Amino acid sequence: MNTVGRGRVRVSPGAKRIRAYFGGKVIADTVHPLLVWEVPYYPAYYIPSGDVRTEFLSATGRTQHSPSRGDAVLSSLRVDEREVVDAALEYVDSPIDELRGHIRLTWDAMDAWFEEDEEVFTHPRDPGVRVDILPSSRHVRVEIDGMTVADSVRPRLLFETGLPTRYYLPKVDVRLDLLEPTATITHCPYKGSAEYWSVRTGKDVHTDIAWSYRTPLPESQKAAGLIAFTDEKVDVYVDDVLQVRPKTKFS
Predict the structure, then answer these.
(1) Which of 9, 79, 110, 140 places its Cα 20 to 30 Å from the Cα of 28?
(2) What is the pTM of this model?
(3) Other beta carbons within 10 Å of 108
């Protein structure tokens, strides 16, 4: 992959056709996107300005400064009566040559994003991320406050690039009587939408500490209906060996 790194910013050409929709209009349609890691966890799409319907954009007169990317000109997006202020930015004179002549549309401002003909949610998929879900006969036990809340010898182990191993357990091997459903929903571009539970151990409630993908995306079907716990906040024993709690952004 031809990747350019400048400080904490990586830039790489994308291989997929990318489309963004707003107000029933195709606002961007390109086969030459740039993937730009503005944050280390996932990329953003920068679209060649010639592949953006700029007639729907109007400069607001505001700018946004980035130490690495320079000063961006902000534009609002308007289609008929719908408008999103500062929905687009362009680094006209960026010190990163690759960004010049490209527009970044704010992900959440769009109604829908497509990679080829598949809708993508939350953020662009990182081509360097792989998700493997493997059946295992390891003995996995989860404790919270010294109480066993799950115990299974048939877990499925989810290996995702850059994250610790996650242990997905059958519901029949989980103390469902300790779980309390919450209204929290999160979205992953690789796995889909997750529902959450809190765990009550005596008087203590551990909020949103377990989750499950009821109807995961096709590539993550092996995790459907299984429950995982936030390993950063619970005690996990694998084959009777206590695992070190990982340090991640979820800690």
Answers:
(1) 9
(2) 0.83
(3) 9
